[in-house]
Design goal:
InterPro entries: ATPase_NBD, Hexokinase_N. Pfam families: Hexokinase_1 (PF00349). This is Hexokinase N-terminal domain-containing protein. The chain has 57 residues and is of the alpha+beta class. 28% of the residues lie in helices and 35% in strands. It is built from 2 helices and 3 strands, in the order H-E-E-H-E. The two termini are 22 Å apart.
C-alpha cells in the first residue's frame, strides 16, 4: 500500500513539473463545506517533503 505522500507524488506527476512545489508546502490549512444540510470543516497540517501531511478530524 502506498503512503499518502507517494499517492500525492503520483498525482502531481500527472499535473506536470510546475506543480512539484506543492510537496514543499508547510502549515495548517482549513477547508469549509457550506453546502447542503451539513456543515463540514477539514483541517490539514502539511509538513513539507520530510513530514508529509497529517489530517486532523
Amino acid at each position: 500500500m502506498e503512503t499518502l505522500k507517494e499517492e500525492w507524488e503520483v498525482a502531481l506527476d500527472d499535473l506536470g513539473t510546475e506543480s512539484a512545489h506543492l510537496l514543499d508546502e508547510e502549515g495548517v490549512f482549513y477547508a469549509l463545506d457550506l453546502g447542503g444540510t451539513n456543515f463540514c470543516v477539514l483541517r490539514v497540517q502539511l509538513g513539507g517533503k520530510e513530514r508529509g501531511a497529517l489530517y486532523c478530524p
